[in-house]
User: Fold this.
Amino acid sequence: MPFDRREKFFLQDEVVMHNQIDSAWVVIRGNVFDITALYGGGGGTGSRPSSPKKIHQLLLAFAGKDLSGFFTDGGRPLYRISKDGVKVPVFAPVKVKNRATGEYWWNDRSLRIGRITARARPLRVRNSLTFKVQELVVCEEDTIAMIQRKFLRFNGNATNYRWRSNIDMSDAAADLRLDKTLTENGIVYDRYPPAPLVWIFYQIPEGMRLDHDQTGGGDSHGQPTITSASSAVSPTTEANNGTYPSSTQVATCSAGS
Assistant:
């Protein structure tokens, strides 16, 4: 599915976590707004209201939520007729303005930070050194490079691995393209479990050697131990597609090692 690669995409679960005055996000028709600036946060782009108005408190109560039900498909506020015959917004906080720009927050491009992903993609990542499988959920629009960065919270060396979905191929043609998404790399979406499996193979930097014992270990966290050695094994240079360094080798271990 086509999408704007300049856009940032978020999981709905990411938005839910931003539900406090120091980090407040909301969603309107798939668009994600960071309204923290309305409360004096967000890098100083706004200023705290001179008095804690109830209308600001009401908006904050909806932080982390999807407000699409209060807006038209085009992102404009819905209105109703009051018992007095007056046209009023269904959601009163639409009247709040960003004092830094003078714009209503829902129409302020400076507060819009991205879109909700078209589809959440569950993924399993198996480390070829430890055989440990880590599960995570990424955005349909995330490239492999973006997924690597997200994976850093599980493995600090994530960007030093080759990422592959086909372990039957040993040459660089098996590497996933870092500038492509899962779908663009041929890993199609399947709503039924198990989630697609991607293997990561450690790249030994040139002039370094990988230390692990016969049990396939590494450091206390299961990460490979890299040491400098003048007698290090010369890394094999594979032809590559330009997305991985060529002066590396892929470190693997068999299930029985």
About this structure: Residues 128 and 244 are 18 Å apart (CA to CA). The longest strand covers residues 197-205. Confidence is low (pLDDT under 50) at residues 213-217, 227-257. The helical segments are 12-16, 54-61, 144-151.
